[in-house]
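Summary of Year 1 activities. Much of the first year was spent building the evaluation harness for sequence design. The harness presents a backbone, in tokenized form, and records the residue chosen at every position. We chose the following record to illustrate the format because it has been used consistently in internal testing since the harness was completed.
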């Protein structure tokens, strides 16, 4: 035993003797003194037993299992909100560009970012372009002003009949179909991964402005 170990033994002996002496002095007895020795030993060990570790792991795993559905719903809600906001921002951009350019500006579904697509939903992506000949299709010489990539596969974004294929803004910032007919409508954005989670709706009013509303969970059932 080296000098360092001898010093530790001496210090521990003194501490133990003092504890025992105090116990006897206060009439506690040798039983309590043994408890104090055990407490001192546990304090010096400062670790966890295997049983305690396994119990902690089991409790943590159970908590994560219970939290998993809530985390999934939260992520689904975030995706829905992000999709609705992207759609609303693009409509605002198309409207402002129409006023700035004093000409028609159209937003249409476009998975490849080059031409308009009539089938499928808006989650596949869209483009905004300067529609100089008012046919709701990007032709040669017409500038594509913005491309929005497809949304997450867990999203669905559908417009009702007036806005199912495209939205066209006039130089006055109002929405009109290529025929000149009044155009207003509603987009419904839902998450495919979380049933019962409320969706969002982007509503275009009579003057072409878009707003985001909360949709009932039944619309996304």
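For this record, the design step produced the sequence shown next.
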């Amino acid at each position: 035993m080296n000098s360092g170990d001898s010093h530790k033994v001496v210090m521990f002996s003194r501490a133990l003797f003092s504890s025992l002496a105090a116990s006897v002095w206060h009439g506690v007895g040798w039983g309590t003194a043994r408890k104090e020795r055990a407490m001192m030993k546990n304090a010096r060990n400062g670790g966890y037993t295997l049983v305690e570790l396994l119990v902690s792991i089991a409790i943590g795993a159970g908590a994560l299992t219970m939290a998993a559905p809530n985390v999934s719903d939260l992520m689904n809600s975030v995706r829905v909100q992000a999709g609705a906001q992207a759609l609303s921002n693009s409509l605002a951009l198309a409207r402002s560009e129409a006023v700035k350019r004093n000409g028609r500006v159209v937003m249409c579904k476009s998975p490849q970012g080059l031409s308009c697509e009539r089938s499928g939903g808006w989650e596949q992506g869209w483009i905004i372009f300067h529609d100089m000949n008012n046919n709701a299709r990007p032709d040669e010489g017409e500038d594509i002003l913005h491309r929005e990539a497809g949304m997450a596969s867990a999203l669905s974004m559908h417009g009702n009949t007036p806005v199912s294929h495209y939205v066209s803004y006039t130089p006055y910032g109002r929405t009109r179909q290529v025929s000149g007919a009044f155009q207003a409508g509603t987009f419904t954005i839902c998450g495919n991964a979380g049933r019962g989670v409320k969706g969002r709706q982007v509503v275009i009013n009579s003057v072409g402005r878009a707003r985001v509303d909360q949709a009932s969970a039944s619309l996304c059932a």
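The longest helix spans residues 50-101. Quantitative recovery figures across the full test set are reported in Table 2.
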